[in-house]
């Protein structure tokens, strides 16, 4: 197992301090380290994974999810284990099914609400907030099919505690105009639909550009509500 | 006596030539693979093959679906080891071919071929 340099550790700490669901593969390759950071209008998430084999990886995730409409913020720290359930290696394509399980703690910060008839009911209580920390579990199922010029993926995600269940389903389809090789910069154009239930209730489309060369992956785009989304991944 | 010496010399020369050609160490190994479609795929194969003691350099082509391994002088990697390492990387070996051509020459051939 390689040990990170101080620079990389500081990078992770910085990204963690800043900080949704990455749709990148949770396992890059055997004996790899991966740092992923993703943010959109509603969440920040940073993952650090180590994959001792090509079919298993594990590591911590730090995330912040918020709803401006409800005034709710969730800060989660979860340890994840990722499994490659099945891979199909074809002459010109590859397909994969992954699952992820995570256990951790989440702190929910929400505005205080008073029952009808209460003296304070009806007053704006946004400056009075309640914090609740509880155990959380996180499960995902994702799959992908790709060639050197075509990509499609789906992901079903559930984040649950005793008091809430947040669901996110994502589908992506992508195209690369050039059949890139290993030493080339791969440029992908990705279309995405994301459906959220729980803290958020919406279905939103988006378009992204993915740049991928050797061990660095950057994805930048915008949703139909004109909100930016960015994802950065580096693998060692 | 003289004729016997000549015959012995010729026989020795042929034997040496034969031994050299049969037991000449290969310079490169070309591995045909399934499932190579992205940089992570290539990176995984490259890492596994670079970790072999006999490996000098590795080149992976997604286009030709091959990994090219340059061997250190006098060294080789067995087919069983290659298959085991590639399987451990998560891919499928389709072919293994050894060559006395240099790594750079083969890499150029792979890059230039259509």
Descriptive account of the structure:
The complex is a heterodimer of chains A (about 240) and B (about 110). Chain A is mainly beta. Chain A has a single domain (about 5-235), classed as Porin (Beta Barrel). Chain A has one helix at about 5-20, and strands spanning about 30-40, 45-55, 55-65, 70-90, 95-110, 130-145, 150-160, 165-175, 185-195, 200-215, 215-225, 230-235. Chain A has a twelve-stranded antiparallel beta barrel. Chain A is globular, with a radius of gyration of 19 Å. Chain B has a single domain (about 25-110), classed as Alpha-Beta Plaits (2-Layer Sandwich). In chain B, about 45% of the residues lie in helices and about 25% in strands. Chain B contains four helices and four strands. Chain B has helices spanning about 1-20, 40-50, 80-90, 105-110; strands spanning about 30-35, 55-60, 65-70, 90-100. In chain B, strand 2 and strand 3 form a beta hairpin. Chain B is elongated, with a radius of gyration of 19 Å. The termini of chain B are far apart. The mean pLDDT of chain B is about 85. The interface between A and B is medium-sized, with 31 and 22 residues.
How is this structure best summarized?
The complex is a heterodimer of chains A (236) and B (114). Chain A is mainly beta and 236 residues long.
């Amino acid at each position: 197992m390689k040990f990170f340099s101080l620079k990389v550790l500081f990078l992770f700490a910085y990204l963690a301090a800043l900080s949704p669901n990455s749709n990148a593969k949770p396992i890059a390759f055997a004996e790899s380290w991966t740092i992923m950071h993703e943010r959109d209008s509603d969440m920040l998430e940073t993952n650090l994974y180590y994959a001792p084999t090509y079919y298993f990886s594990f590591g911590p995730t730090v995330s912040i999810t918020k709803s401006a409409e409800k005034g709710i913020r969730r800060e989660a720290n979860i340890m994840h284990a990722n499994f490659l359930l099945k891979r199909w290696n074809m002459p010109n394509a590859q397909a994969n099914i992954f699952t992820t399980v995570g256990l951790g703690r989440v702190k929910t910060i929400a505005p205080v609400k008073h029952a009808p008839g209460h003296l304070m009911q009806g007053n704006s209580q946004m400056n009075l907030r309640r914090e609740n920390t509880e155990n959380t579990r996180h499960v995902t199922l994702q799959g992908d099919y790709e060639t050197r010029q075509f990509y499609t993926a789906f992901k079903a995600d559930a984040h649950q505690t005793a008091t809430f269940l947040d669901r996110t389903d994502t589908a992506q389809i992508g195209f690369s105009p050039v059949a890139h090789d290993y030493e080339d910069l791969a440029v992908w154009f990705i279309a995405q639909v994301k459906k959220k239930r729980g803290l958020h209730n919406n279905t939103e489309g988006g378009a992204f550009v993915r740049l991928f060369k050797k061990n660095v992956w950057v994805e930048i785009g915008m949703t139909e509500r004109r909100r930016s989304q960015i994802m950065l991944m580096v693998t060692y | 006596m003289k004729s016997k010496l000549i015959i012995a010399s010729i026989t020795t020369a042929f034997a040496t030539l034969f031994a050299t050609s049969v037991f000449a160490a290969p310079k490169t190994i070309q591995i045909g693979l399934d499932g190579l479609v992205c940089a992570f795929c290539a990176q995984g194969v490259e890492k596994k093959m670079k970790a072999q003691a006999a490996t000098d350099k590795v080149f992976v082509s997604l286009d030709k679906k091959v990994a090219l391994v340059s061997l250190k002088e006098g060294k080789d990697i067995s087919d069983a080891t290659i298959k085991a390492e590639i399987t451990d990387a998560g891919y499928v070996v389709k072919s293994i071919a050894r060559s006395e051509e240099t790594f750079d020459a083969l890499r150029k051939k792979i890059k230039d071929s259509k």
